[in-house]
C-alpha cells in the first residue's frame, strides 16, 4: 500500500514537473539559413527536385495573393476605427505626428534612393523576375486562387468602413472587425510566417539556377549599407526636434534611449520593448502620463524605420529589374505606405506583409519581386524595429511640448482603455 502510494505520488510529482521549453529558432535565423541553402543547393540540385519547390512557391504565392486584400481589410479597418475614438485630441495629435514622421522618413529614403542607388548599383540588372521563359525550372502544376477583390478595392473599402466606425457607437460591427483582425494575425503567425523560409529557399534556389543570384546579393549589400546610414540620419533629425521640444541636449537624449534601441535590436519586437522604451523616455524628462500613453500607442502606429527600409529596397529592386521609376507613383506609394504601416501586425515580418498589397497595386511588383522584398526586409528587420522604437521617444518629447505641461484626465483614463485595444 505504501509503495503504491509512493508510486502514485511519484507520478503526480512527475506530471506536475514543469516541462522545459525548447529554445526557439527565430524567423531571422531561419530566413538566413534558407537563403544560404538556396544558394548552395542551387549549384547542385537536380532540376526535377527543384521543380518541387517551384511548385510550392507557385501555390504559396497564389494563397498570399488571395490573402493580401483580406489582410488589408482585416487590419486597416479596425485600426482606423480605433484611432478615431478614445483619448480625444491627444490621440489624434499623436497619430498625426506618427504618420507625419513615417511619411517624412519615407520621402527622405525615396529622394536619397533615387539620387544614390543608380550610381551605387552601377547599371546592375537581373532582368525581369516574372518572365517564365528565362527559367528552366517550371512548376509541375499550378492552381489559380483568385482574390475576393483586388487590392485597391480593399484599401478603399477599409477607409470607408474604418471612417464609418468612428461615426457610430461602438458595437457588434467594431467587435466583428477586431475578431477578423485576430483571425488574420493568426493566419499570418501560423501559416504565412512559418512557410516563408521554404518560399524564400525556393526563390533563391531558382535565382541561383538561373545565374541571377550574385547580382541580387551585390544589390542587397549595397542597399543595406545605405539603409544603415539613413537610419542614423533619421534618428539624429528626430532627436534634434526632440531636443528643441524639451530644451535638452539631443545627443544626450539619444544616448539615454540606447537601452531601448539595443533591446529592440535583440527582440525585433516593438511591443516587447515597450517597458524599456517607456523607462528611457521618462529618464529624458517625459512626464509619466505622456510616456505611458504615447510609447505604447507609437509602438503600434509609428513605423518610420520600416517605411524607410521598404521604400529603399523597393527602389533598388525596380532599378535592377528594369522597372520604370515613376516618381509620382513612388510618392503616392510612400503616402499610402504610411497608412498601411499604422495597421501592420506586431509579428516578425508583419510590416512587409501588410505592405505587399501596396507594392503590387501601386508599383506593379510581381510575386518574385515581393518575395525579394520579404527576404531583404526580414534580413535587417531588427534594425528597422530599433529605429522605430527609438523614434517613439522623440514623439513623446514633442507631445510633451504640445501638452504645455498639462495632462488631462481624458489622457489618463480613456487613453489607458484605448491602448488595450490597439
UniProtKB/TrEMBL annotation:
GO biological process terms held by the UniProt record: serine transport
GO CC list: plasma membrane
One function term, GO molecular function aspect: neutral L-amino acid:sodium symporter activity
Keywords: Membrane, Transmembrane, Transmembrane helix, Transport
Location within or outside the cell: Membrane
Main localization (coarse): membrane
Membrane topology (UniProt): Multi-pass membrane protein
Protein name as catalogued: Sodium:proton antiporter
Organism (species): Brachybacterium alimentarium
Organism taxonomic ancestry: Bacteria, Bacillati, Actinomycetota, Actinomycetes, Micrococcales
